[in-house]
Amino acid sequence: MIHPELCRVSPPKSGENYAAQGTWVGGWMDLREGVQTMSLDGRSGGELLRGLDEPGRRTVIYVNIFPNVLLSLHPDYFITHLLVPRSGDRTLVYFTWACAPESVNSPCFDPAYAVDFWDITNQQDWRACESVQRGLTSEHARPGPLSADEDAVYQFVTMVARGYLGERVWNPGGAVAAHS
Predict the structure, then answer these.
(1) Residue 25: helix, strand or coil by DSSP?
(2) What angle do CA 108, 113, 117 make, to 5 degrees?
(3) Is the pLDDT of residue 17 over 50?
(4) Most exposed of 33, 59, 77, 98 (fewest Cβ within 10 Å)?
(5) How distant is the alpha carbon of residue 103 from its chain centre?
(6) 89 by DSSP, 3-state: which?
(7) How many CA atoms lie within 13 A of 88 on its CB side?
(8) Predicted structure pTM score
(9) Cβ neighbours of residue 33 under 8 Å, at least 6 residues apart?
């Protein structure tokens, strides 16, 4: 419900999370039929990245590298988020784009098709995170269970908890949940 634009280009229940072995979590999402990329109208304004097979042209991969890097690989662009904590309730986010050289070198290339989409989607995420942060600062806040659909969130939270406990953030012998 917080991402209507995202749901128009990728079904909410598509894809799954990878069984990560290391200090990362991530997964993939399908694009809807007739959609070329994640943009407001589903159309791409750029060239496909080189070397993609047919499934790669229909898939978006997302990866969170512990503790603060997010990668998002699309058929026609690649984006990174670098999150830099400033305080307990403030984070600076650096957002970087990469597109195929064939796109960037074209005199009529305009990345706004993807930039506009991610501006809206990121702001939706930030509002959701800010809302959760406000809730957690309440003296009445009590942790609750995560949905089974949030296994990547559980993996990440577990890495953070291990770090706070002075343990290795990666538990190579631990079981990893996977979507079915």
Answers:
(1) strand
(2) 160
(3) yes
(4) 33
(5) 23
(6) coil
(7) 4
(8) 0.84
(9) none
Residue 173 pLDDT: 57
Neighbours of 38 (CB within 10 A): 26
H or E segment at 30?
strand 24-30
Cα gap 134→58, rounded to integer Å: 37
29 and 13 Cβ atoms separated by less than 8 Å:
no
Query: Measured between alpha carbons, how far is 157 from 9 in angstroms, rounded to an integer?
Result: 28
- Residue 48 gets which letter from DSSP? P
Q: What is the DSSP letter of 146?
A: P
Measuring CA to CA, which residue among 149, 115, 110 is closest to residue 38? 115
Q: What's the length of the chain?
A: 180
For 70-128, what is each residue's pLDDT tens digit? 999 999 999 999 999 998 778 999 999 999 999 999 999 999 999 999 999 999 998 98
Q: What's the token pair of residue 10? A: 């990728």
Q: What is the distance between the alpha carbons of residues 17 and 131, in angstroms, rounded to a whole number?
A: 25
User: Tell me: the pLDDT tens digits for 28-77?
Assistant: 999 999 999 999 999 999 999 999 999 999 999 999 998 899 999 999 99
Mind giving me the DSSP string for 101-115? HHHHTSTT--THHHH
* Nearest CA-CA partner of 161 in 26, 37, 66: 66
